[in-house]
């Protein structure tokens, strides 16, 4: 019995030591991003955008080095121009896929996600307006992300990640022209593979 218990304990330790990106492992992670973007809507030219994202995620390694799963993107956005300001909060759900290369301690990766969310905003007309006013809206958004990065495995199951993420977001004000933003930002995160 003692021999069987030691064998099982050894097997668990060995399987954990190779659990980084092995098929059948569970992936739990999260990252954040600070993003500065420009707006493509001609009516709002000169619009400056500040965006802070946080995205917890969970996934499953379907192949060695390839994980698929779901993330919950949470966003804070502030847009300002000469005549208006818009502050918004959003939450969504997005399937993702990520592929790691290498069996070394530092693993390059590529990932992508597409998702839907709801954004609530507070829009205020400021200087230059004859009728200063504000409005509160809720709208749907489409989020598409693509990124590349490096994961540094500080232990056999925990990695620190840093990558460059390219994003495209489109949302509609309900009848008026849709707003499309795109940009790039640096992601910093942590991941656990069990």
Give descriptors for this structure:
66% strand, disordered N terminus, nine-stranded antiparallel sheet, elongated, mainly beta, Porin, 194 residues, single chain
Give an overview of the whole structure.
It is a single chain. With 194 residues, the chain is mostly beta strands. The protein has a single domain (2-193), classed as Beta Barrel (Porin). It contains 1 helix and 9 strands. The protein has one helix at 2-17, and strands at residues 26-39, 48-63, 66-71, 74-80, 84-100, 106-125, 134-153, 158-171, 179-193. Strands 1, 2, 3, 4, 5, 6, 7, 8 and 9 form a 9-stranded antiparallel beta sheet that branches. The relative contact order is 0.20. The model is unreliable at 1-19 (pLDDT under 50).
**Which second-level CATH architecture applies?**
Beta Barrel
- Number-wise, the strands total 9
CATH names the topology as Porin
The helix/strand class is mainly beta
Could you give a short description of this structure?
The protein is mainly beta and 194 residues long. The chain contains 1 helix and 9 strands.
Helix-strand layout with pairing:
Elements: H1 2-17, E1 26-39, E2 48-63, E3 66-71, E4 74-80, E5 84-100, E6 106-125, E7 134-153, E8 158-171, E9 179-193
Antiparallel strand pairs: 1-2, 1-9, 2-3, 2-4, 3-5, 4-5, 5-6, 6-7, 7-8, 8-9
